[in-house]
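Hey,
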Amino acid sequence: MIAVIQRVTSASVTIEGKIEGEIQRGFLVLLGVTHLDNREDVEWLGKKIVGLRVFGDSDDKMNLDLRSVDGDVLLISQFTLHASTKKGNRPSFIEAARPEAAIPLYESMISFLETELGKPIQRGIFGADMKVALLNDGPVTIIIDSKNRI
C-alpha cells in the first residue's frame, strides 16, 4: 500500500461538477492498493499518516502531527501509484489490486483514520473520474510504502 501525503492548506475533490470532499489544513492522501496488501498494511500505514510530524510548532519546526493541529484528511484512491514503467512508455497496472480487493481496504483505511482522529474523513469515490485541487503547504510531500517497513 502506497500513500502520497501532501500537507495542504486546502484540498478538494470534484466529481461530475460537484464537490464530493473538501478540507482546509491537513493532509491530502493519495492511496494506492496492491494485490499483496491486507489489514496489517492499513493499520501500519494509517498510524504513520496520523503520527506524521510535519506541521510547524511555535518555533516553526516540523514537530506536530494531525491531532496537534486539529488537521483533516482528504483520502483519494489512486491505483496509478502502482504503475510499472519498466518496459515501454505505456504504464502497466498489473500490481494494482482489483476493485473487489482494493475497495474493502480503502474503506478500512477510512474507518481506521476516522477512529484514530475522532472525526469524519473526506474522500472521493472509488473508481470515479475525479478532479483533485490542492494548495500544497510548504510544499511538503511524503511517500510511504507499507512494504518498505524494514
